[in-house]
Amino acid sequence: MGSVCTGWSREVWNALPKRLTLRIVRIKGFRVHQYDLVTTLTDADIYTKDALAELYYRRWAVEFYFRQIKTTMGMEKLRCKTPEMVRKELRMHLIAYNLIRGLMQEAAHQQNVRLDRISFKGAVDTLRQFSSALNATKGRPRVQQRVIGDMLAIIAEETVPERKYRSEPRAVKERPKPFPRLTSHRSTYVVPKSRKGKGKPKKKNADKAA
Questions:
Q1: How far apart, in whole angstroms, are the C-alpha atoms of residue 24 and residue 13?
Q2: 42 in the same domain as 87
Q3: For the chain, what is the domain count?
Q4: Which end of the chain is more exposed for a tag (fewer CB within 10 A), N or C?
Q5: CA 52, 56, 57, 61 torsion: positive or negative?
Q6: What's the CA gap between 72 and 61, in Å, rounded?
């Protein structure tokens, strides 16, 4: 074997077995026609082909959770400028995400609904709508608990259809707007000549209208 991998201690590296017995399972894919899954779970009676395929599809769902943080929660563009503040901004997004997922878990448990059927965006929108009511009930725990119960019931109602093996192509749905980028402050920005007069009626059409 070669040199020790960066980040691994020699004790951990030496504890690895000299050989591994692997199992190759051919599974029908949804992005590709089929793929070969290599695993150390060699017992086919305990770890069936269908179970491994389901586990692999659940692994791909993690990418969807990342999209929820980036797109639904608006973390695609960070506002902070320094490395320290950027790390704090990332932590705040992760804390908010976990709190929302916790609300979804509680809603699924109380209303006997599958967690993977509850809409994340629906939960975010519902929490925003109830934020004023929750703030107004501070100091009144009984009323606040009733408001929270109503909020969880609405979150549980915001379900998404069954989308097993749904294709998620890496493509932009909406085209960018054909406007130049704002490269300076609005008060000093100069509109390019090619953009001046855009949207105004042409002279011939204006004369006809007159």
A1: 25
A2: no
A3: 2
A4: C
A5: positive
A6: 16
Range of the domain at 24: 7-65
Amino acid at 55: L
Which residues in 179-195 are b (16+ Cβ under 10 Å) and which e? eeeeeeeeeeeeeeeee
Q: Note whether 38 and 23 are within 8 A (CB).
A: yes
> Given a cut of 70, is residue 166 above it in pLDDT?
no
Per-residue pLDDT, 1: 45
- In terms of residues, how long is the chain? 210
C-alpha dihedral sign at 106, 109, 110, 113? positive
Residue 16 resides in a domain: yes
Report the number of secondary-structure helices (H) and strands (E) in the chain.
6, 2
pLDDT in tens, 76-96: 888 898 999 999 999 999 999
- Tens-digit pLDDT profile for residues 12-40: 888 888 898 999 999 877 666 788 889 99
CA distance 139 to 134: 10
- Tell me the pTM: 0.61
